[in-house]
Design goal:
The complex is a heterodimer. By secondary structure, chain A is α/β, with parallel strands linked by helices. Chain A is about 40% helix and about 10% strand. Chain A is globular, with a radius of gyration of 21 Å. Chain B is mainly alpha-helical. The longest helix of chain B has 22 residues, at about 20-40. The chains are: A alpha/beta, B mainly alpha.
């Protein structure tokens, strides 16, 4: 029961069949047992969690509380949590204790959620396998020799193994949706600007998007309701009327037009993934949706465009890590310049350094127009492709990832091979649009397959509706990895 | 065009990251692969296309010029590697 989705836990708390302290104690025990193998958590805070749980029980006894009160949650370690270590999976911040809460952390705290710890991640959110963490790789609960996906790999593994009912993540090129797919859970990336980036340690400022990983679309909607909102401390935070993201969950799918980009169904996608997606599409048609072929011709350029823009923005954002105000500082250096160079050489891992170098190059004198400006132009072409496609459909559906989870070590020596994991996910970041990945089957080795639903800007309620209706008719989302059953 | 080891050192200097001679070739060859991926984008015709820097073409919001932040100097100094008299300590730059 303790590993049920939030909607059920919330009802149990309201009916006093369970207390927040009991839920939290159970979560902490499961984390303790599983973390040595999965390495999903970088920091666990048992004392703080139990104190927060007691507060949640007291608040419930004293009056009305919301649907998330008393529910355990974990935050991706890229989000600042006041008084708790926030490492970004990096040696650079291995001992950094955040002096303030990120906006989304504060919002979930205000909603009464019980923070139990910080999840492991690819360093500075750069990666698709969670093999780039200074704290070691995260393992996929479905098979510990396989990756959970990245960069929110710790959050994905924690939810998949039912250590916590939900975890926050961030998605810059697919880092919520892809690990959700590889780990067999639901992962929602909202429209850019819907969730504030205040306190989200920046990787790529025009792409970074806080979001949710949970067992169901319904649970994602509950967390998004609490996390979204205008924040004047983030100049890209949108000031819009408050939405209830659960409002359309129950709507039948009759009349829904699903666009299938022909470029998503070519070669390069594993047969088991194609099979699971085809079956899911048949299910959606059975629920009343129609499908239409659309075309996104610029989409095969999305990965190179992404790696120019994301790397450029990363090189700028990570220039703040110089050993002066926070984080790692080299122990020995000849002068200030040497201190910078050694601090950064020591503090950053290989992938982060690579992306900073790429970004520095594409922004440098003589190359800016040919690379960065060019990428921004192709970005607009990609956005126009999607706009045209949405004239003929309401949502776009396809695989989240061309493959299921791969073995640890398979792609680490080949950055480009690793980057191509993101082929279906990056476009949504480039155009700022929402997307959700939900489980829709397994491959022959029992590894999960994820289906990606993409929508227009501010189309979260529609995406959650489609996902929820699919989850009412199927049970992929309810499967638990062997060894992690309740 | 493939990168040279000189290119790698020049970029590393701009990025303020030390790359040792032992690491340089591996870094160079991996960067080459990444630039080959990126090269695919450069072949596209984008004549007359306006660059897109923000998803929703938003405008930078402004606020009233009033003091609203509280002074949390002690909290922020506490996380620094080296401080003295309320200042960050770094190696001397000017003789």
């Amino acid at each position: 029961m303790f590993t049920a989705p939030i909607a059920e836990l919330s009802a149990a708390l309201a009916a006093k069949r369970v207390s927040a302290v009991e839920l939290t104690t159970s979560a902490l025990a499961r984390i303790d047992a599983a973390n040595p193998q999965l390495n999903a958590f970088a920091t666990i805070d048992p004392d703080g969690a139990l104190a927060r749980a007691r507060d949640a029980d007291a608040a419930r006894a004293a009056g009305t509380v919301g649907p998330l009160a008393g529910i355990p949650v974990a935050h991706k370690d890229v989000l600042m949590t006041a008084g708790l270590r926030t490492t970004c999976g990096s040696r650079m911040l291995a001992n950094f204790v955040a002096p303030y809460d990120a906006f989304v952390v504060q919002k979930l705290r205000d909603a009464g959620m019980v923070l139990v710890g910080k999840t492991n991640m690819d360093e500075f959110a750069m990666g698709s396998s969670n093999e780039n963490s200074f704290f070691g790789p995260v393992r996929n609960p479905w098979n510990p020799d396989y990756v959970p996906g990245g960069s929110s790999g710790g959050s994905a593994a924690a939810v998949a193994a039912r250590l916590v009912p939900a975890a926050t993540g961030t998605d810059t090129g697919g880092s919520i949706r892809q690990p959700a797919a590889l780990s067999g859970i639901s992962g929602l990336k909202p429209t850019y600007g819907v969730c504030s980036r205040y306190g989200l340690i920046a990787f790529a400022s025009s792409l970074d998007t806080p979001g949710v990983l949970a067992q169901t679309a319904h649970d994602c909607a509950l967390l998004l309701n609490a996390m979204a909102g205008h924040d004047p401390r983030d100049s890209t935070s949108l000031d819009r009327p408050i939405e209830d993201y659960t409002r359309d969950l129950a709507r039948p799918l009759k009349g829904l037009r699903i666009g299938l980009p022909k470029e998503y169904f070519g070669e390069g996608t594993e047969p088991s993934v194609v099979k699971a997606i085809d079956a899911a599409l048949a299910e959606l048609r059975g629920l009343g949706a129609t499908t239409v072929e659309v075309s996104l011709p610029s989409v095969d350029l999305a990965v190179p465009v992404y790696y120019v823009i994301a790397s450029a923005e990363a090189s700028s954002n990570l220039s703040r890590f110089d050993g002066v105000r926070y984080g790692h500082r080299a122990a020995r250096y000849a002068d200030l310049a040497d201190m910078y160079q050694k601090t950064r050489a020591q503090g950053f891992g290989a992938e982060v350094k690579r992306r900073i170098l790429v970004g520095t190059y594409v922004l440098s004198h003589g190359y800016y127009d040919a690379y960065y400006l060019k990428a921004q132009q192709v970005r607009r072409r990609i956005a126009e492709d999607f706009r045209r496609a949405y004239e003929r459909c309401d949502v776009i559906v396809g695989p989240t990832s061309p493959t299921t989870a791969f073995r640890l070590g398979d792609k680490v020596d080949n950055p480009v091979k690793m980057y191509l994991n993101d082929i279906f996910t990056v476009a949504a970041n480039l155009i700022g649009a929402p997307g959700i990945s939900i489980p829709c089957g397994f491959d022959r080795q029992g590894l999960p397959v994820g289906m990606l639903l993409q929508g227009r800007h501010f189309g979260e309620a529609t995406l959650l509706n489609v996902a929820h209706q699919y989850q009412l008719a199927t049970d992929w989302h309810a499967r638990v990895p062997p060894g992690f059953a309740p | 065009m493939p990168l040279s080891l000189d290119d790698v050192q020049r970029i590393a200097c701009l990025a303020r990251i030390e790359i040792t001679p032992a690491e340089a070739e591996d870094v160079r060859s991996k960067l080459d692969g990444i630039f080959e991926l990126i090269g695919r984008m450069r072949a596209v015709d984008t004549e007359g296309v306006e660059p897109m820097s923000h998803a929703l073409d938003a405008v930078l919001p402004v606020r009233d010029d009033r003091v609203t932040e509280i002074n949390r100097r002690e909290d922020y100094l506490r996380v620094a590697p080296a401080v003295e008299a309320g200042l960050y300590l770094v190696p001397k730059v000017i003789e």
